[in-house]
Structure formats: C-alpha cells, structure tokens
Amino acid sequence: MSKIIGIIGVGYVGLPLAIKFSNHYKVIGYDHNKKRILELSKSYDSNQEHSKKEFKKKNLNFTNNFNLLQKCNFFIITLPTPLNKRHSPDLNAVVQLCKNLGKILKRNDTVIFESTVYPGATEELFLPNLEKKSKLKVNKDFFLGYSPERINPGDKIHTIEKIKKIVSGSNQESLSIVESLYKKIIKAGVYRVSSIKVAELSKVLENTQRFVNIALINEISILCNKLKIQTKEVIDAASSKWNFMKFYPGLVGGHCISVDPLYLSYKSEFYKLKPDIINTSHKINNNVANFIINNFNKFVNKKKPKVLILGATFKENCSDLRNSGVIKIIQLLNKMQIKPTVVDPYVNTDPKLEIKYNFIFEKIYKKNFYDVIIILVAHDIFKKMGIQKIKMLANNKNCIIMDIKSIFPKGEVDFQL
C-alpha cells in the first residue's frame, strides 16, 4: 500500500515536515486556519521559513477540510500545546483532534504525535480518545508513535533533516514503522528509545536544561550590574574553558523554553514531588522584564518619554511572536502610561496586536525622534545597522540606549543585562 501522509497543523513544525515528506510520498497538510491554508496554497509562508520554490511539488496539497484526511494512512499531529492562565498544560486542542481523528481512523493506520507534552500524555490522554471514537485497539488494529519535534525557527543551519530525530512506538512493530518513515527525510538519522514516555520526557528535558541554565545567567547578570561589569564579557571569559556551557541572559519566550519546563513541573507535582529548581528558575526568568523596567526608571526621568523598541519576536532572525518576552515589557510600559513604538522587520503589522497590547508598530525608523531606545532582540539587521546609526534615531545626546542582548560594546550604551 502506498503511503499518504496527513500532517495535522502546518505551522512552524508541520510545514517543514510536509515539504520534506512530499519528496517521497503524497502529503496532505491540514490546518483549521483558513488564512494559513490559502497562503500555503499560493506557495507563501507568512512565517518566512520557506521559499516559494520549496512548494513546487506535485505530491503536496493543503486543505482545511478535515474529511479529506480520510485518504491518509499516516497521521502526524503537530498541534500547539500551550499553557493556560494558571500556567498548567493546555492539551485541549490535541484531545479534540483525537476525538475527530478517531472517527476516520482505519485498520493499519499509523498515528504519530510530535506535539510537546508531559510524560504519559500520549498513552494516558490521547490514545483513549482515539480508541473510543474509532472502536479500534492500538497494537492490534492501528499503530501509535511519538517523535518529539526539534524545529528551531529562524535557524537556517540546523534544519529539520540535519537534526537527529527521536522515535518511539507503542510496541516494537509501531517503533519500526515510525523509524522507517522518518529515516526517509532525516539525514542526521534517528534515535530509537524504548517507550513513548522516554521520548516525551527527553523533549521537555532538552528545554528544561536550557531554561535552568538561562535562569542562572539571569541571576548572575543582576550581580554583574551591581559590580558594574559586563555579563557578556564574564561569560565569554568563562567559556574559554572547554566544558563551560555558554548561555546569555535575557527574556525567555517562545513555545518551547518558556513552556516545556512547566509541563515537567506539572507532572512532578502530580507525583507529589517538588520541582524546586524548575520553579525557582521560572520565578527568576519571569522577573527579568521587571528588572529591565526598574533600570529603565533609574535612567529615565522624563514623563511619558518617546520609547522605541527594536525587536518583537521571541528570538533573533525569526518571525515567531509566541510567548515573546517583549510583550511583557510593553505591558509594563503601558502601566506607566507609555505607548512605545516597535520596529521588527520580521513581523507583519497586525492592527489587532497594536490595539491589544497598546503599542505602535512601524516599518521605518524615525530619525532624531526618540528619548529611549530599547534593543530587545538581537536580529542580524540591528547588528549590521550598528550603534552609530541607531544613535541617529535619538532626539538628542541624552537619549537612553538599553542594549538588552549586549550586541554592542558596553561603553556605547547605557544599560545591558
């Protein structure tokens, strides 16, 4: 039987999978977002991750008609798994998808989850909904796998085929099927693990390690500011030793690093364990925005200054706004009755966002205009622009420049983490 793969969710994770698999199989990319499907059908990726040339494949089609997925015998789920207002896992979108998928699931079909979850979620939460709605049994009637996504938005070096893929299955047969499928597109190879729980936990561990290490450096940056030395210089010096892990301070955002550790914390607390390091790290990282604004207040005496923020995305050189720490900075400025101007060449102007978060989004810079310039994201375009051109945006020599990512020499700016 020929493979027809249904990719459910064609955002940052699903789209590169759909494109790569379409080199070997027929692929149907499904998303409930009609605008997204319309754009992809016209070979346009608003996330700016893929060029039009990559869409020119006969085996690749996009739809928002869920019933068209009935043709598929492989289903890969890449839906987002965010946090709710209580900072607990919100898996509702995937649970509902499983209920719908169960209605069209057939014998010998394979279902693979890539969405990030806490260990146990796939088999304890998703699988029962698939079995109930399909009236089929896993390992008897259909196959189940889990292969955590490792997409790094904005990274043109570590692309999907160059990152080793962890694969797991509900039994050995499922594992072999999942392994065989991904081997077709992952040049770096696959890494087999013994169970779905191992694969789930390995994913959240990857980002929890980064989360904890960034928290340590964020704490060190506060000390460095007290000592009046540059945090970056200290880190660069320490990293001259071969086994030093190099992390820099900053706002923690995005769909992975700011979310995954809290999934791990949630599961630990379920077993009445105390994930003290994770929870403390969350508190430290969450406080970075307040630390930045406290220093903003130390430097800025003028009421309602004209503030320019350079960068809005959660990380450099990508268009991803999910959980961006920049939003928290904007909200804190709003509390002081300040409506900042935001410039980010990677983000399309969205009037709804401007109204929701009370800021002005500009595509161009106003020269000789701003009282405060805050560089929040280390986009290459800002580095190439250089500090002298950035200073030309200031309305006078007393303009405060806060270089949060330390992309310029310490003596050229007023504040760095």
Question: Could you characterize the architecture of this molecule?
Answer:
The structure is a single chain. The protein has helices at 14-21, 34-41, 92-102, 121-134, 172-183, 196-227, 231-238, 260-270, 276-286, 288-299, 325-335, 351-357, 380-391; strands at 4-8, 26-30, 60-63, 74-77, 110-113, 143-146, 165-169, 190-192, 307-310, 341-343, 360-362, 372-375, 400-403. Helix 5 links the parallel strand 7 (165-169) and strand 8 (190-192). The strands form two sheets. The protein has an eight-stranded mixed β-sheet with strand order 3-2-1-4-5-6-7-8, with helices on both faces. The protein has a five-stranded parallel β-sheet with strand order 11-10-9-12-13, covered by helices on one side. It has 13 helices and 13 strands. 42% of the residues are buried. The chain folds into two domains: 4-194, Rossmann fold; 288-417, Rossmann fold (3-Layer(aba) Sandwich), CATH 3.40.50. It is globular, with a radius of gyration of 23 Å. By secondary structure, the protein is α/β, with parallel strands linked by helices.
What's the short story on this structure?
The chain has 417 residues and is α/β, with parallel strands linked by helices.
Mean pLDDT: 93
Number of strands: 13
The portion of residues assigned to helices is 25-40%
Structural class: alpha/beta
Name the assembly state. single chain
Q: How many angstroms does the end-to-end distance come to? A: 57 Å
- CATH 4th-level superfamily of the largest domain: NAD(P)-binding Rossmann-like Domain
Quickly count the helices. Answer: 13
Helix and strand string, N-terminal first?
A: EHEHEEHEHEEHEHHHHHEHEHEEHE
Gyration radius, in Å: 23 Å
Q: Quick one: overall form?
A: globular
Binned strand content: 5-15%
